[in-house]
Amino acid sequence: MKVIVNGAPRELPEGASVADAVASVTTAPTGVAAALNDEVVRRSAWASTVLRDDDRLEVLTAVQGG
């Protein structure tokens, strides 16, 4: 299935979760937030939130600095 992750199309297997998609774009899940179709997904729900074709996922990473 095709999902838009951080503005770019990405092919993921059917049944992929938010956790799977986050793992595909980052190596360290700490300091990371995810929003699915403009709704924040709590980290505790990542594994159980299944993605669908044409969903939009934004994966945001907190960084230090000024």
From TrEMBL:
Naturally occurring in which organism (per UniProt): Actinomadura chokoriensis
Gene: thiS
Name listed for the protein in its UniProt record: Sulfur carrier protein ThiS
Cross-referenced Gene3D superfamilies: 3.10.20.30
Signal peptide: none
InterPro entries named among the record's database cross-references: Beta-grasp_dom_sf, Mopterin_synth/thiamin_S_b, Thi_S, ThiS/MoaD-like
Top-level taxonomic group: Bacteria
SUPFAM superfamilies per the UniProt record, alphabetical: MoaD/ThiS (SSF54285)
CDD domains named in the record: Ubl_ThiS (cd00565)
